[in-house]
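Friendly challenge for the regulars: who can give me the structure tokens for this chain first? No prize, just bragging rights.
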Amino acid sequence: MPASDDHPLPTTSMGKFLEGARSPLAGLAFMNRHPALWRYAALPILINLIITTIVLICGVLLFVWVIDDRPFEMGDTWVWLLLEILLDVVAVVVLLGMVFALWLTLGALLSDYFLEKLVRQVELRLGLSPDEMRDVSLLHSAIDTLKSLTLLISINVALLVLHVVPVIGSIVGVAASFYWISLIFGYELFAYPLTLRGKRRAEIKAFTKAHRPYMLGLGASTIGLGLIPIVGAITLTTAATGATLLHRRLSDTQT
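First reply, four minutes later:
Bragging rights claimed.
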């Protein structure tokens, strides 16, 4: 059985990016057509709601501490004022990166098992035989997730040096960080249907590299929607479903 979208896949890079970006919405539509799938999405949604609430509270408290309780006093000249603004901007950017990394880490580790169950049910509805599926090793899944998270943290730490350059450095740093986070997030979402077929990290990387614009669009839209309260907790489940649908369509074009 083919995936639900019957329009042809795009041929341009921008078209592929937009097709990946709409995947969470395609996943939502598919889940609404198969209401029983929401039973498998309930726990990941609840987990992400709790995690988001905790992370937001911690983020606000850290923000207040950094901005209002700076551990040193600045001077009164305009030079000191500019330096103060620059330091505050850098602190806020770093803080947002830390908060996002914490949210992503906890969400991925605690929801991973349940999202794999959801993807399995989606694949069954798309016609994949149970005999074609492989049991996902919890240990291998956790190791692969931790590798991605380590890469995410390493990249963001390396990009911190850009924030030393006033204004432009922070803009470039944030844009570069968002690009890499989107790629990593897209990779993790595509990994669900691929892992279910017994693929390991090297094979998953080869597939996602061949479909990078889709992966980038999928990751970017999932992150953007994920920053919206409540909507973000639901988005992770619909994005996993959408990634499964898109993977099926991309695989069908190669056979």
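Residues 150 and 173 are 18 Å apart (CA to CA). DSSP finds nine helices and no strands in the chain. Your move, everyone else.
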